[in-house]
Design goal:
about 325 residues; about 35% helix; alpha+beta
Length: about 325
């Protein structure tokens, strides 16, 4: 069983910076359990050859291949395994301890891979947080995932040309390139929430709020929002802004900015609640600069605490990732 997956980015980085051969070699046959959901994790595995299936509560979530690392999340968070991994084919792997994992994190390139991987996995594990606005809208928030592409495209199609103009500064539908960018979410430098309507079955997306960290200052990030027309005026913007504040706090952002068209009075009203500093970077455009702490305070305490718990682990992954930037 020969694999050419040493060209996988993470595995290639590991091979370049670490003596993988010193890690214990372990082999599994088809059907063998590599990791078991609920176990306390004290090791990780690097899959060198073969395929394995990932399950949670007996539901198949994904299939991993050579070049994948499994089990690192428990080492990062100190929590029990959130899923089981079962060999689909014969699998050859290398097993490392917590000390081995810590040693690997000394490499910037490896740490970046692990941080992004951990943040994405943690985001996919987040349970949606329910809320009800003062206007009576019953919704829930969860991280928007790159795999939500079709649902995100559907949400964009429900924006009127005028709403698209106010959000994207053009009435046209976003290009494929822009959509790829908007779904290039790593939950460290680019975080997004999707707002779901709890009155529909299944719950349908009706809004998106995102936060993109500004470079080179990692303490600053820009926010943007979109709510489909039929749900505008229901308080979703204010809740979304508060949720952005929670995500910003988790990933180490202290200042949030947002640019809007001068005529966008609805969003001006939303941002005004966060006591912003207003500037005019260009003709017809306003920029709000807001404190993360003030934004978080816009949420009811129970919603803020639930969202904070939901993204706490993502913040840990972000902290690891930010170490790369110095």
């Amino acid at each position: 069983m020969k694999s050419d997956d040493s060209h996988h980015p993470l595995l290639r980085s590991l091979l370049e910076v670490a003596d993988i051969d010193r890690l214990s070699a372990v082999d599994f046959g088809p059907g063998d359990v590599l990791l078991r959901e609920g176990d306390q994790g004290d090791f990780f595995l690097i899959i060198m050859e073969g395929d394995a299936d990932v399950y949670r509560a007996d539901e198949l979530l994904a299939t991993v291949h050579a070049g994948s690392v499994v089990g690192e999340l428990s080492l990062l968070t100190g929590t029990a395994r959130t899923s089981s991994v079962v060999a689909r084919t014969a699998v050859r792997a290398r097993r490392g301890s917590a000390d081995d994992f810590a040693e690997l994190l000394e490499s910037d390139s490896v740490r970046e891979h692990f941080a992004n991987l951990a943040a994405s996995r943690l985001a996919s594990n987040v349970t949606a947080v329910s809320f009800t606005t003062a206007a009576g809208f019953a919704g829930e928030l969860r991280p928007l995932l790159p795999s939500d592409r079709l649902e995100y495209m559907d949400l964009l199609s429900k924006l009127s040309p005028e709403s698209r103009r106010l959000r994207f500064f053009t009435a046209s539908l976003p290009s494929e390139k822009l959509i790829n960018y908007l779904l290039g979410i790593d939950f460290i430098n680019h975080f997004a929430w999707v707002v779901l309507d709890r009155s529909t079955s299944p719950h349908q997306g009706c809004g998106v709020a995102r936060l993109i960290r500004s470079d080179p200052d990692p303490s600053r990030a820009e926010a943007a929002f979109a709510v489909i027309d039929e749900h505008q005026g229901k308080g979703i913007g204010s809740v979304s802004l508060g949720a952005i504040g929670v995500a910003a706090s988790a990933i180490g952002v202290t200042t949030v900015t947002a640019q809007i068209l001068d005529e966008n009075t609805a969003m001006r009203h939303v941002f005004q609640k966060a006591k912003p500093k207003w500037t005019r970077p260009d003709r017809g455009i306003l920029e709000a600069e807001m404190s993360t702490d003030v934004i978080c305070s816009l949420l009811p305490d129970d919603v803020r605490l639930a969202l904070t718990r939901a993204v706490r682990g993502i913040g840990l992954a972000a902290e690891i990732g930010l170490n790369i930037r110095g």
